[in-house]
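# step 3/5: fold
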Amino acid sequence: MESHFTGIAGLTQVPSAAAVVIDVLRAFTTASWAFAGGADSIVLAGSLEEARGLKAGHPEFITLKDGPPAPGFDTVNSPAAVRALDLGGRTLVQKTTNGTTGALAAESAPLLLCAGFTVAAATAEVLRAERVRHVTFVITGDDGRAEEDLACAEYIAELAAGRTTSAAPYLGRAAASAHAAELVAGVRRGHRGIHPDDVSLCLEADRFPFAMAAAPERGHMTLRPRRAPGA
């Protein structure tokens, strides 16, 4: 399997086979915890206005975004916050600065997966089961330079290529990343929208046995869990 790594701005053409959009801290870790908690689907909104509009039309939807709590949003983009909710059968609407933006930029890929460390092995298993020959990894953070996202992408690429590798060095890179340090500092300063457990929850490799696949549904890109083969 041939792997290509790019930032969102580097998506100048449609990936020919598969795209894996990475946002470790925190969008797609949050999404994975939502599915683990029983969520049915996650609509990836392109703007705050779109998210609020979906909420207005579907009051039962649960909306979340980056940053502190805000009118029109039920919760924040935090795996720890989402983990505490009763999400059985619910639909979420997620809008984040990097993760959802990256997924929408890659929406034309024949196979579109969204991932963080929590679903890394399952994501690799789906790529292997689909016999993908070329995969584009979209590094959403820091204009394609986010160390935590690149480390996760490289870990998935190694697993998808059939090579046995330990998650530990990749997790170490993510833990030492600038974004992880920013989140830890934000907790210390009392910033709303960040939970003290967020970083640790984002750095649990292969926690869940499903990948997360995005596809258009009723005019919106929608994320759903996809069981890994043999899981």
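# step 4/5: annotate
The mean pLDDT is 96.
# step 5/5: archive (pending)
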